[in-house]
């Protein structure tokens, strides 16, 4: 199996560990599965392959998160955020189809940029406020930039996070909205990466297998919600992602 997947033991351990940690974050605070997973595995796995591995874990864990409170609970976020989703779907599909044309240095730079953007958003925008007249336009802008970043890197949460933070969603609405939008917006990765060859036979199998540690981590995260302070966990995650983002930028610029 490892010969078919073309994995070394170090790469296999990094993929398992990255998805486990990313899943714990997903279950605990609802976000950061791909950004944590790629931060861990990206030092030993080629960038295009790393983003391909994330496709099925992203889709399945977000579906799990979306359905965690029942299907009826998704009606409100779908009604409110469908314009964002549509723009993100179209933009991400186009960007994902051409992902193999982007140089490796550009992918590394984009990964580093997205990680540092994610840290900046979580650290410095807790009091961001959005005037009512800008709610719909800002959603369209968030969808566009999420699609642009997601198609190239498989990490598309930061612009959506900024938007949802500005809307001051409560915890329940936050988790439902994140689960729904992330699930739907992840579909173009499956199509685009399948068409351009990033999601080839071995990578597809590896992506499906990677759902196991992602599910395990998400389940652990759900269990930890009442035992571990999300704020404490988030601070640790942000420090780690900041260092990982700097490392990706260093590799891109060397």
Detailed description of the structure:
This protein has one domain (2-253). 79% of the residues lie in helices and 0% in strands. It has 14 helices and no strands. The chain has helices at 2-5, 9-29, 33-41, 47-53, 55-67, 75-97, 104-124, 135-153, 157-167, 171-185, 187-196, 201-209, 211-224, 230-253. The longest helix has 24 residues, at 230-253. The radius of gyration is 17 Å and the shape is globular. The relative contact order is 0.21.
Helix coverage percent of residues?
A: over 70%
Number of helical stretches of at least 4 residues: 14
Number of strands: 0
Strand content: under 5%
Q: What is the structural class?
A: mainly alpha
Compute the CA-based radius of gyration. 17 Å
Unreliable runs: none
Could you tell me the mean pLDDT? 86
Order of secondary-structure elements: HHHHHHHHHHHHHH
Q: Could you give the distance between the termini?
A: 34 Å
- Biggest sheet record: none
Shape: globular
* Number of discrete domains: 1
What's the arrangement of secondary structure elements?
Layout (H helix, E strand, L loop, with lengths): L1 H4 L3 H21 L3 H9 L5 H7 L1 H13 L7 H23 L6 H21 L10 H19 L3 H11 L3 H15 L1 H10 L4 H9 L1 H14 L5 H24 L1
Helix pairs in contact: 2-3, 2-5, 2-13, 3-14, 5-10, 5-13, 6-8, 6-10, 6-11, 7-9, 7-14, 8-9, 9-10
């Amino acid at each position: 199996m490892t010969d078919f997947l073309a994995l070394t033991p170090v790469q296999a351990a990094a993929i398992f560990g990255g998805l486990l940690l990313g899943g714990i974050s997903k279950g605990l605070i609802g976000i950061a599965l791909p950004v944590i997973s790629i931060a861990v595995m990206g030092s030993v796995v080629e960038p295009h392959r790393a983003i391909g591995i994330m496709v099925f874990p992203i889709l399945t864990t977000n579906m799990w998160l979306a359905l965690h409170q029942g299907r009826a609970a998704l009606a409100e976020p779908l009604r409110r955020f469908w314009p964002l989703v549509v723009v993100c779907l179209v933009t991400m599909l186009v960007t994902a189809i051409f992902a193999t044309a982007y140089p490796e240095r550009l992918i590394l730079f984009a990964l580093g940029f997205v990680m540092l953007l994610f840290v900046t958003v979580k650290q410095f925008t807790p009091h961001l406020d959005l005037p009512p007249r800008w709610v719909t336009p800002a959603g369209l802008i968030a969808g566009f930039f999420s699609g642009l970043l997601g198609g190239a890197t498989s990490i598309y949460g930061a612009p959506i996070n900024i938007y949802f933070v500005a809307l001051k969603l409560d915890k329940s609405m936050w988790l439902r909205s994140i689960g729904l939008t992330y699930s739907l917006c992840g579909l173009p990765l499956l199509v685009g990466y399948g068409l351009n060859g990033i999601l080839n036979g071995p990578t597809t199998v590896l992506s499906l297998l990677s759902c196991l540690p992602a599910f395990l981590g998400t389940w652990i995260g759900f269990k930890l919600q009442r035992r571990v302070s999300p704020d404490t966990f988030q601070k640790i995650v942000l420090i780690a992602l900041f260092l990982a983002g700097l490392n990706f930028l260093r590799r891109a610029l060397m």
